Amino acid sequence: MRKFVVVDLETTGHTPSKGDRIIEIGIVILHEGQIIKEYSSLINPNTDIPSFITNLTGITDSDVKDAPSFKAVANEVIELFTDSYIVAHNIPFDLGFLNYELENVGLKALNQPVLDTVELARILLPQAPGFKLGQLSEYLSLQHDDPHRALSDAYVTAKLLDVLLDKLNRLPYETLHQLQVMEQRLKSDLDGILDKRIEQLTFEPLERDDLEIYRGLALKKEGKHEQDKQVNEILSYGELLDSFFQSNSSLSEVMENYEQRQGQREMSELIFDSFRSSQHALIEAETGTGKSLAYLIPAIYESVTNKERVVVSTHLTQLQTQLLDKEIPVLEQLLPFDFSVALIKGKQHYLSLNKFEKELFSSTQDNYDITLTKTIILIWLTETLTGDIDEIQLPSSGKLFFRRVSTDSEGAIDPRSPWFTRSFYQRVRTKAQKANLIITNHSLLCTDLVSEYQLLPSYQKVIIDEAHHLEATAAKHFGLKLDYINIQFILNSIGSLQEGDWINKLSNNYPCVKETITDYKWDKWWQDTKIEADELFRYLFTYVIDQHKKDVAINDIGRYQYRIDEENEIQSKWNTITEMVTRLSFNLRDLIHILSTIKQDFVKQEVEDEIDEIQSMIGRLQMIIDDLEQLFLQPDHSQVKWVEIEAYGAKNAVYLFCEPVDVSKILYEHLFNEKKSVVLTSATLTMSKSFKFIRERLGLSELSVIEKKIESPYTYDSQVQLMVPNDFPDVKYGKQDDFVYATCEAILSLAEITNGRMLVLFTSYDMLRKSYTLLREIMEQDEFMVIAQGVSSGSRSRLKKNFQAFERAILLGTSSFWEGVDIPGSDLSCIMIVRLPFQPPDHPIYEAKSQHLKENGKNPFMELSLPNAVIRFKQGFGRLIRSSTDRGIVFICDDRIMKARYGKFFIDSIPKVPVSYNNTQKLMQLAEDWL
Predict the structure, then answer these.
(1) pLDDT-based confidence at 262, cuts 50/70/90?
(2) 291 assigned to a ligand binding site
(3) Helix axes 353-361, 368-380, angle to 10 degrees
(4) 597 labelled binding-site residue
(5) Is residue 864 within 8 Å of 905, Cβ to Cβ?
(6) 292 is in an annotated binding site
């Protein structure tokens, strides 16, 4: 049976049992890769079509008025499915709906093998950017003329199926065999297809030079390296920059829309000078400087000419991807010499083949998500050379599974292990040892500074991009985070004597283990430990809720935050917490004792394989004890400790944090004092053109540092209008609801002028939610598409894509939308800043830092609160203009920027732009005239 009937339905909603009906059917029949028949019909649903469905599909009530009912076409539709696979992009939806309608008109439901192209695409195209039909058609360059119309969607799904079956046919025998073992737990009925293909391979083996088969796994082989460029002599640095940055330069030939920028060359020269003079540098490069290229050129030149590696560290993986996919290829093309680049991340990012092999071949009954995850990784292994999980998208519980099979979970890998030479993590470390340029993230950089084990190869020169994040990242890494879910995850990954658990498998394989865990009553201690953990976290939840409201801050994602200050806690309750912590620590020590006994038995019997695994489990339990003791049993004024709870979440949804109040000394000792040259760069490092704030926070104040602010090449005075209303209610006097109402009215008035295309930045999640609800109430029916962080579902990048996809959209965002969101061109015409981004004074970290500054005779507002707010404000302002042709309005609802003494610090810290301070009506008129 090689006939595939691809079906797509357009419907009035998602739930036929609640009265939703089919409005269009599209069917495409595929046979041996050829489309042999198409069928399409509108259907009269005998009910109104909701407006959002009409917007999505273009199908109106009048279109279906004279169309046949489903009953009239049902027999003709059933006929098309004879002797075939049923295929759909999300088969549970389309087939479920179709069968409901068939049974509704007295016909039998279809009952044939099915293929779900969403599931198959997830498995067979693991590196696709997304799995919606539109995303896949773009990724595979499949023509999709009429999205959300049934026949067009069915046609594209048929083309997608053809690609997927072709991919399946190019997989080796071993991979297909593993898929077959797991096939019955998938939605798609692949058995017949896999059977036939495996039988073919028995007679005609697949020839693939790019794969190696090892212990039943097909792995991608590294390709041959290209010949090195022949270099007679390396140009001087000045000559090299001339070739890059003069008019008609080589850059303009290879980069689309390349614009010559004076600041780019200036920045490259500054970095080269700081490397050569072994000095540290602070460089603020405003938007449009082209700083990535500006620092990559001196970094690579320095490495090649001085034969020493240079490190580049970024905050976001998004920027690492941009460097590797966009800038590095340009430089590989243009530089007259060869260089090598390695990207290195923390161990938790890389797959452990050793662990994955054990999980894959274990006979446990996996749930759907775990089965899907295993199949995704299996195919990905035939494609990846890095084993970096960021290359693929896993289902939600697949991410937990990946923690079990990441390099981080395997401890130190034995060089004698058969997997050592194939370890992705070892491969990336070896590559990094030989590389000129190492790209990493702040998080790994900070871990490496204080780690006993060297995570990065030794280096003396480093460029830290997005450097305004270095302080917060360092604090996180020199601190700790502990939560209930993580403790339970560690306990569950060791498990009990239940079938399929790790300790149970160990017990079944080794009689000495069975004896030890029976003698020591492992299950009792393990169960008691889980109960103790649960009780502690539930008590902490209640403790935070019971505190007087003024002591509890609410952060921008709606979590309550409570700062722990041992001396001022309610002693009776605090004693209860410390007693519970002590009991949990004792229980964990008992588990460690039992595991240590088992380990000793293995050492005597020389069972090498299991010793590392047991040591890794002991280490993870010991880390929980250390963290609990640091948080609750060791007073330390140099640390800030706090608890976060989900106010409406589970009663044990509690997160514990601890960070140093001041990281400047740690950074000075471990980074600036150790390295010859550290270059810190970002678009936002200064306040009122001064680097004093960042210099002191990072521990650079004692040193001689090169400092330079590089102006943006954009003409802000003609590209931006800054507007501040003088008639908004004052939030201070209990008028928050009035302020929110005024904000929402201004959003809708401005959106009329800008045709949507607005990003509204909030500092409070609570205010964002209130504004979203009010906008939906006061807006004419679906006049604008309102997308809100934390309310609309999806990640930040998904919300951004939805915003760009809709004609008239308004995007409401809090913290993470203030930076790193790039919406160029006409997609964004207006940024509204609701409140100046001061951190709430009761935020635990801010509170502790303020106290520390006061004790040192400093003013917390001027030294901490104001500079942080100004830098955040600059980031928000910087979202608007991303090219020399962009134009737009920055509308600030908070008139403290004009009235307060400190307001000028905000205005003086952004490029010079025309500022209008007037009543809202006049500002709207001005906006309309200007745009």
Answers:
(1) confident
(2) yes
(3) 130
(4) no
(5) no
(6) yes
